[in-house]
Write a structure and sequence with these properties.
The structure holds two protein chains of two kinds. Chain A is an all-alpha fold. Chain A contains four helices and no strands. Chain A has a domain of 51 residues. By secondary structure, chain B is mostly helical. Classes of the chains: A mainly alpha, B mainly alpha. At the A-B interface, helix 1, helix 3 and helix 4 of A face helix 2, helix 3, helix 4, helix 6 and helix 7 of B.
Chain lengths: 92, 213
């Protein structure tokens, strides 16, 4: 049985691809090589875990809010604008 | 609260209702996107008052132009584009683009690899920690610390969950550039947040720092 060639990847190349890895944007071969690297490299595991965590946090709807008042003033502005217009009926 | 995504058919119905004169339907169209377009404007202008002004202008423009919206693109993409265009016009009007890296045609992407600064053993920050103002403030501060082009791509991709193609189109860059900027943005966010994590967010944990080679 033929031996599978051992493919190594250095940390710098892992960091270059780590964002794509998280988004499933790397091809299967590269994915396998990186997965193997993460098993053996504590530094890169730490980068992966931290990046994944940060992506999850910023993507959570609670993380960033529209400031109080901005929403209210936005709709007030729209109200003002609509008040100056008469609804038009389109002929279908 | 996470922005609720409206089904396309519901949106299409709302758009038609607005066109037929039921203007109140426009509020329902805009509401799911108000945070997103505000974040997008803020990522370009980095100023709350300017972002608010731009969002108001964008919404009014969108309302006036709703008859021209043909549905080839998603409504969200359309309203994001209007907002981003307004924000860029404001930058140009204020001549701030001279001091910003927004005009990417003058600058290459070739800034070399981003080398992470911190290799501390990572401890998961649970989403529940977002209930704490402190974490939300830390996230905002980290986001504000990014250069505009990295902040913008993070807002569109990771905060507003637009896909790579949508992000590329809105920013006027290639998909490859979206990916390289997103990489940098994410790694910088991680570094900006790392010093606070161990010990700050979980009790009884010694902060472990490992220096890179």
């Amino acid at each position: 049985m033929a031996k599978k060639p051992i493919v190594e990847i250095d940390c710098i190349e892992v960091w270059r691809q780590i964002s794509n890895y998280l988004d499933n944007e790397v091809d299967p071969d590269l994915r396998a090589v990186m997965a193997s690297h993460f098993k053996d490299c504590a530094h890169c595991s730490a980068i992966l875990d931290g990046t994944r965590n940060v992506v999850r946090l910023v993507g959570d709807g609670r993380s960033f809010e529209i400031p109080a008042g901005v929403s209210r003033r936005l709709y007030a502005k729209l109200d003002d604008h609509l008040a100056t217009r008469r609804p038009k009926k389109r002929n279908s | 609260m996470a922005t609720a995504r409206v089904q396309p058919e519901v949106e299409a119905d709302l758009i038609e209702r607005v066109r037929c004169g039921e203007h109140e339907a426009f509020y329902e169209l805009v509401r799911p996107h108000e945070r997103g377009i505000y974040m997008a404007a803020l990522s370009i202008l980095n100023n709350d008052a300017d972002a608010e002004e731009v969002v108001q202008e964008a919404i009014l423009k969108a309302f006036k132009a709703i008859g021209k919206f043909r549905g080839e693109a998603k409504f969200s993409t359309w309203i994001f584009q209007i907002t981003i265009n307004e924000a860029r016009m404001k930058l140009r009007k204020d001549r701030r683009h001279l001091y910003d890296s927004l005009d990417e045609s003058r600058r290459g992407e070739d800034e070399g690899d981003y080398i992470p600064r911190d290799f501390a053993d990572w401890r998961e920050i649970p989403s529940e920690a977002l209930e704490s103002t402190r974490l939300r403030e830390a996230l905002k501060k980290a986001l504000d610390s990014l250069a505009p082009k990295y902040r913008q791509v993070l807002v569109l991709r990771d905060i507003e969950h637009l896909n790579i193609a949508e992000t590329a189109k809105l920013m006027g860059i290639t998909e490859a550039t979206v990916k390289t900027r997103l990489l940098r943005a994410r790694l910088m966010m991680r570094d900006a947040l790392a010093p606070g994590f161990d010990g700050a967010w979980r009790k009884g944990r010694e902060y472990e720092k490992v220096r890179p080679f």
